[in-house]
Each structure stands twice: as structure tokens, then as C-alpha cells.
Write a structure and sequence with these properties.
45% helix, alpha/beta, two-stranded antiparallel sheet, binds ribulose-5-phosphate, globular
Length: 264
């Protein structure tokens, strides 16, 4: 791995803890104005100081994030489909040249293992790795799960391992039972998505179980920005990821910060 690649990766996964809290706000690329992200700038700005990196599209990056902010960016470069169409039919939507112009620290693309379009997305990943490595840019492979797939260790382990075999530098997948098996058989760091909004305490438990079972952190979206107290929530997640807080400790912090906000 060359210096530039290592440097960019260490901007995302913090060397002090070997972990990361990525803030995922890329949902609009196929969902449009998702709840909580209707006005991306308003959602993102207060969370930025607590995010180790920001995962988003170039459109939102350009229009809704201050270029003087020093947050590392993991740019989503796959898409081309919507919730109304065939989600697996994604292609690459951003050139490497534009990604470099945007000074990104990583690029992200989804793979759809088991779908009729798995070959297209897997070859797309391999091609993106070839191109990104030319410039020392790490690639995050996102294991998208179709409605008819099981989010179990067998499937997520298969998809994560294939992503790593094709050269992804880190992988985003879901937490599941026997998650340690997914981590053990994937030779690159794994971060987990939060998934649909669930109660804060449950989301904190999910993050805790993931890192305790080997995840390098989270790339969390809805469970942060759809919380009634997103700034308190991201800080609670940080306590778990970087300080090994228990879910109870993190939930106490969440409640304290949420209460302070109400009083202020
Ligand atoms: C979809 C994505 C999402 O934007 C991301 O996974 C969402 O994060 P969360 O599930 O925590 O809202 O990458 O493939």
C-alpha cells in the first residue's frame, strides 16, 4: 500500500483507536429527500464536529458542506437507480478525476451479491479499485442486501469476502448474529451500517456489539440523523466506538446531552 493510500485511510479509520465513526448521509442518491435529510446542510452542519468522515454524494458535498471544513470525505460514486426502479442496476456515477478534484479520502460503491446484476456490480468494484489505486484512493465496498436476501453471517460473510477479494480496502455491511465470523473471514476492516431507525438504546447496543465483535466502527445514518437528538446520538456512538463505553454508559450520555439541549 502506498503512502497516499495509507494516509487517506488513516484519515478515515483513526490510528489512535483503529476505529471510525463515519456519518452516512448519502441516502438521497436513490431515496430522494429522506426523512431527516430534506435539507442536508441543516442536518449535516451540527454533526460535522463529531464525524470522523462524511459519506455522501458529490451534489450534496458541493452544495451543502463548507469547503473549509476539514472533515474527510468518502464519496459515493455508484448510483443511477431509484427506489422506484431496480436498485441493483447501479453504475459508476463519478469520474476519478472529479473525486480527486473534490479532494476525497475515499470512494464508495455498492455491490449486489446474489442479485441478477451481481456481475455488473462486482466487475464495477474491481474496475473502481484499479482506477482508485492509480491515485492512492481507498475504496469502500457497500454490501447492499436485496429484499429477498437474508442478512445473516453466511450471506454477509460471502458478500464482504468477495468485496475484499476484488480489492476493496474496507467494507460496509450489516451487523448480524455470529458477526465475528463475518469479520474473521474478511481480510480488510469492516464498518457497519445502522439500518432503519430503531430506538436509541437499541442502536447503541448494535454499535457496541459490532465493535466488540471486531468491526472497525460504524458508517451510520438514519439512527443518528433521524434521532430526535442527533448531536447527542452521534456523541453517544463515539463513546462506544472510540472509548469502548457500554450501551448503558452511552445511553446515559445520550440522555444527559439531550436534556442539556432541552434546557439550553
Ligand atoms: C445504502 C447506503 C446508505 O446510505 C447507508 O447504508 C445508510 O446508513 P444507515 O443504514 O445507517 O442509514 O450506503 O447502501
Amino acid at each position: 500500500m502506498d503512502w497516499g493510500m495509507k494516509n487517506r485511510l488513516s484519515r478515515i479509520i483513526k490510528p489512535e483507536t483503529g476505529r471510525t465513526v463515519m456519518l452516512a448521509v448519502d441516502h438521497g442518491y436513490f431515496l430522494g429527500p429522506t426523512t431527516g435529510l430534506e435539507e442536508p446542510r441543516k442536518t449535516i452542519e451540527p454533526l460535522l464536529p463529531y464525524a470522523d468522515s462524511l459519506m455522501l454524494t458529490r451534489g450534496v458535498l458541493r452544495r451543502c458542506v463548507d469547503p473549509s471544513s476539514n472533515v474527510p470525505v468518502v464519496l459515493r460514486v455508484s448510483g443511477g437507480t431509484s427506489i422506484l426502479g431496480n436498485l441493483a442496476d447501479e453504475g459508476t456515477t463519478v469520474s476519478m478525476r472529479d473525486a480527486i478534484r473534490l479532494n476525497v479520502s475515499g470512494v464508495a460503491l455498492s455491490i449486489f451479491v446474489g442479485s441478477g446484476l451481481e456481475r455488473q456490480t462486482l466487475v464495477g468494484l474491481a474496475n473502481l479499485v484499479d482506477e482508485a489505486e492509480e491515485y492512492g484512493i481507498p475504496v469502500l465496498a457497500v454490501t447492499a442486501v436485496g429484499k429477498d436476501m437474508n442478512r445473516d453471517a453466511r450471506y454477509l460473510g460471502l458478500a464482504s469476502r468477495i468485496a475484499a477479494e476484488l480489492g476493496a480496502h474496507f467494507v460496509k455491511t450489516y451487523y448480524c448474529e455470529d458477526f465475528e465470523k463475518v469479520v474473521r473471514s474478511c481480510p480488510v476492516p469492516i464498518v457497519i451500517a445502522g439500518g432503519k431507525k430503531i430506538p436509541e438504546k437499541d442502536a447503541l447496543e448494535l454499535a457496541y456489539n459490532a465493535v466488540q465483535n471486531g468491526a472497525a466502527g460504524v458508517d451510520m445514518g438514519r439512527n443518528i440523523f433521524q434521532s430526535e437528538h442527533p448531536v447527542a446520538m452521534i456523541q453517544a456512538v463515539r463513546e462506544i466506538v472510540h472509548k469502548n463505553a457500554t450501551p448503558d454508559q452511552a445511553f446515559d450520555l445520550f440522555n444527559t446531552l439531550a436534556q442539556e439541549k432541552k434546557i439550553a
